[in-house]
Each structure stands twice: as structure tokens, then as C-alpha cells.
Amino acid sequence: MEQAIAAIRKAGFQADQIKTAAASPGNGGVQAMGQYAGHDTDSPNPDAPRTWLSDGLPRLVLALLLAVGAEGLSFIAPSALPWDIAKMALAAVAIFLAGFGTYRKGLAALRAGRLNINALMTVAVTGAFLIGQWPEAAMVMALYAIAEAIEARAVDRARNAIRSLLALAPEEADVRQADGSWARTAAKAIAVGSIVRVRPGERFALDGVVSSGTGAVDQAAVTGESIPVDKAPGDEVFAGTINAASELQIRTTAPAGDTLLARIIQAVEQAQGSRAPTQRFVDRFAAIYTPAVFVLAVLVAALTPWLMDWTWLQAVYKALVILVIACPCALVISTPVTVVSGLAAAARRGVLIKGGVYLEEARKLKVVALDKTGTLTAGKPALVAFESVTASRSEAVLRGLALSLSARSDHPVSKAIAAGLLGAGGAEERSVEDFAALPGRGVHGTVGGELLTLANHRWVEEQGLCSTSLEDRLAAHEQQGRTVTLLASAHEVLALVAVADRIKPTSRQAVQELLVLGVTPVMLTGDNATTAQAIGRQAGIDEVRGPLLPDEKLNAIQELQSTRGMTAMTGDGINDAPALAKADIGFAMGGAGTHTAMEAADIVVMNDDLRRLPETIRLSKRAHAVLVQNITLALGIKAIFLVLAVFGNASMWMAVFADMGASLLVVFNGLRLLRPEVHRP
């Protein structure tokens, strides 16, 4: 570590080891985003929030005033030795105050044979000073340093968009002690399984499961949901979210360094290291562009006195102007600022993009494959219909009988029936004797002295209780993808109960938005064809494939890629992981999704809202448009001023404004992605 730090400092950069707080609730052991594109910080603590004072603004303002003074003397003072010495002294002090850091880094770069922006500025300002352009050399360095400070502050907005996540989780929480009392404890010291109390208005310090209390929780900061979510015992809560209503007690399920919030921050940090295709292109271009510009400046200085009848001082001055204009700062910084702004904008909406490459490539998607259960649908069966089949008993009585049997079973379908009947009200649960469950068939028991069954279609058919009219009613429900259970006595079927995994309210809108964007949705599901087709019709998806095993989903993705183009896969289960990994871009549902699916995916939708998919594609299109604008601005402005420098009358002042003006333009243009999307189709 010491050797690495020494090498960095030898190269002219400030190096400080950042302590990793692996258990910190706020950062989960991750570091704040560093500077971009070869820029560095001279701050003693590069991880501290940037201020104008830490950027040395008073020193830079003084340097600018001295440079203005030198410039003023050049206009009003006669050309005499005392005045020349005064102008040179003011300029030298201004250059020292504004350019010490630039010179240190520039000389280190020149020694290492690297022609970066600091090397170019060092050569240009030194050359201008040596040929007697003292006021202009001072003004160039002061303006450059101030513009660089403004640029760094602007870039910090993108960094702070991620850094703000660090402050979401509180550092302390109330923990129940062995004697029942409560003690304020540092979040990083709270063990998994502890009971933590969260008052109304407080943020959760850790992930956990509600053990006591009910209330609404604002999860917008983590999942992007705009409406508070109701929580009851057994429901999951996340660090950084806000307890909006009443006091809740939770049992912690993860240490401070491994909360969902910490993993989001860590993934965004890691994503910044994944360079987008445009960024890789710009880096390669700049590596060729910078030496080429240096060669051009040398040729202008050496040849124009012979070719264009310039004096040597004029030729050297023009060459120095070219060096300042051609600094590739704006070009190099244009892509990382845009990409990080896009990543931060997505994170604010509950979309975790694991790399700049996926942000940029999402705009090229032609097909989005969608799993059914847990992705298009809620993933949990719910009661959707209760129909009386006999007229011998009232519906209220039949509901009570169905509730009595279903409440005794732990089968998911029975649980859905019991929950639906209880939620609807009007059903009275009665005691059940001789209750028994028959796997693959249903349950039976004696209620009020009568033997009743709550059975599937096959068991009722085996008992000889089905009729043609009943079969027609069953077929109508089954065609809608519903699971039908029948309440029957020993002699007749009493009621029909239908359960279904209902489509999410937002799925149809998401599918419509994908179609508007020119992206074809395809359902890939392991469920039976009838159910899949029913859900497909509800969602507005024309192409439905099922039932598919995990390897068949993988083959389907490969086939779509070869015949349709770039294909995304969206899923939430372990069975979706192979397809998620194979797809050009994998979207995982983060709320209901398994850890395996989220690891395999490239993008995680934290609140399971499918509308985030078209939103991500639109963000990708916006980011690409901004990238193209930035590269065009950076190269276009420099091309214009390069022509003016060689054939016109571009001064070093104009060169500085061309270089740093372009840099500021691309930075602020890239930061536009942090603004919320205004238009939604």
C-alpha cells in the first residue's frame, strides 16, 4: 500500500488511504465516487464534501485580481524596465497562486511522457511567460484554475446524488435489552436477530421483519414507490426507509454493512468502473488526439515562420494558443459525468443499473422477455370468485363452510381462499372435526355433523359429483388461468371457489409503453399454456410461450437474440437465472426476487414495478443523446477555435474560454439527466 501511495504522489497526485467502514450503516463498506477523467483533488480529505473554501476560491480570486492588475499595467504603464518588472512580478505571483497544483502535476506528467491537460497547460503558460506575454500567461492560469474549480463543483452534483444515499440510514437505533428495556445503540454494533424499535417519522437503520405493530412505511428512497406501503407483522422493511405512521418493532435480518441500501450503494459504486462503449471510444480517441495536437503545435511553431512569414514569437504564441484550445478535458469528461448522472437518476427511481454499458445499451433493445409469476403477476394466489352451485343453502352459509375447512390447511390455495373470505367479511368460521388433508386432492372434515370436502376438480370427478353444466363453469374459469376448488358434501357440489395469481396493476401499462418504444414483449413462463395465455391477454402480450423449463427459457432467449436482435430477460426466480445471465440485459425484480436472480441480472428493479423497464429504456435514449451532444460540443468548439488560432486572431484568453467553456457545457449538459423525466407516453 505504501509503495502504491508513493507512486501516485510521485506522479503528481494527492493520495490518501480511505478507511473502509465495512459495518457502517450509511455506506456498507463502499467509498464515495472519485474524480473523473484524470482530475484529482488537493483536498486533505478527498471523501469530504467539497466547498468553495476547500477548492481554494479565495486564493484563486486573489490570483485573478493580480492577473487583472498585470493586464491593467500593460495598458496604462509605459514600456520601461520598472513597469515591466512590476508586470512580471504580479504575473508570476498570480501564476504561483493559481497554478502551483497544475505545474506540479504537469511536470510529473511530462517526466512520465504523458501529454495530459496539466502538461499542456504547463507548457503553454511557461511558454507565454518566456516570450514576454506575462499578463496573458497569468490571466490564462487564473481563469483555468477557477474554471476547473467550477467544473469540479459541478461534477460533484453527480457524486452527491450517490453520496446522499449514504445518509439515508441512521447511525443509531433503539434496541431491546435482555431485561426488556431499550438502549440507543450504534447500528454497526446491532446483531442480526435483535429487536429494534422505530418511532413514527424515524428511518429504519437496518433491514428486518416487522415483529410488532402495524403502519405505513415510505419506501421511496429505496424502491422508488411513491405511495407508502402498509406493513404488518411478518412484512419486510429496509434500512433508509421512513416509518410514516405508528411505532413498529422489527427483528433485524442483516448487519449494517449488508442491508439492501448498502448493497445498492455498493453496486452503483462498482457500476462506475464499468465503462460504457462511448466512454471506451473517447478514452482511446483522447490517447491519440492529445499527442497529435502537441505535434501540430510544434509544427506551427517550427514551420509557420517559413511558410506564412510570421515572426518566431508569433509562431510560438500561436502554437501555445493551440495547446490550450486543444486540451481534451471536455472530451474526456463528457462521458463519465453523463453515465454517472444516468446511474444516479435510475437509483433515485429504485432502478439499480450495474454498469454504464447497460445504461447505454438498453436503448438498443428489440425484445423484452417477461416471466409470468412474480414479474407480470403478484406471485401470490388470491381469491377471485366464489359461486354458489346449489340453491339449498345461502351463500353466507357456504362461505362459512369453505372458510372453516380452508382455514385449517396450510396449502397456498387454501390460505388464499381463507384470506379472501375473511377479507370479504360475512363468513363465520365454525369448528371442524376429523379434519384431514389428502395430497393432490384437497381436504375434508366434519362441520356441524356433516362430512364436507374442499377438493380439486379431479377428486370431485372421482366422487361422481360433476355434471355437464358444472364442467362448463369449470372450463370457463380454467380458460382464464384460474385454479378452481369445489366445496362438496357427500351428495352434491355446493360451491365453486376460484383462485388466481392476479396480474399486477402496472403490468399492462408497462407492456403498452414497451410497444410504444418499438420493443416487443414476449412472455416466457413455466406455467401451463392456458394460464399463460389468459395472463398474456390481460397484459396485452401477443406472444406467449409456456410451459418452459429453465433450460428451455435459456434456449428461447438465444433464439430471440438470433432472430430479433438485442433481447432482455425479466424475472424474479432461481429458474430465471440462466436466462437472465444469457440475455443481452437481464432485469431482476428486486422486491420479490431471489438473491440468485438479482446476482445474475444486470439491472435490478427494487420495487417490482414493470413500468421501470420502459423508463430505463427512455433514460438510456436520453443518456445516449446527451453523450452525442457532449462529444459534438467538445470537438466542434475546439475545431472552430483551432481554425481561428491558426488562420485568425484567437488569443490565449479565447483558448481558455474555448477549453474550459466546453468542459463546463458538457458537465452541465450531462447533469441534466439528474432531473426527473418530464414526459411519459
TrEMBL record:
SUPFAM superfamilies the record matches: Calcium ATPase, transduction domain A, Calcium ATPase, transmembrane domain M, HAD-like
EC number: 7.2.2.12
Chief place where the protein resides: membrane
Protein name per UniProt: P-type Zn(2+) transporter
Compartment list: Cell membrane; Membrane
Listed Gene3D superfamilies: Calcium-transporting ATPase, cytoplasmic domain N, Calcium-transporting ATPase, cytoplasmic transduction domain A, HAD superfamily/HAD-like
Similarity-based family: Belongs to the cation transport ATPase (P-type) (TC 3.A.3) family. Type IB subfamily.
A molecular function GO annotation: cadmium ion transmembrane transporter activity
Known catalytic reactions: Zn(2+)(in) + ATP + H2O = Zn(2+)(out) + ADP + phosphate + H(+)
Species per Swiss-Prot/TrEMBL record: Roseateles puraquae
Residue stretches making up the P-type ATPase A domain: 168-269
Lineage: Bacteria, Pseudomonadati, Pseudomonadota, Betaproteobacteria, Burkholderiales
Record field: transmembrane: 60-79, 85-103, 115-131, 137-155, 285-308, 320-346, 626-647, 653-674
Coiled-coil region: none
Keywords assigned by UniProt, alphabetized: ATP-binding, Cell membrane, Membrane, Metal-binding, Nucleotide-binding, Translocase, Transmembrane, Transmembrane helix
Keyword Zinc-finger: no
Pfam families membership: E1-E2_ATPase, Hydrolase
GO (cellular component) term, any one: plasma membrane
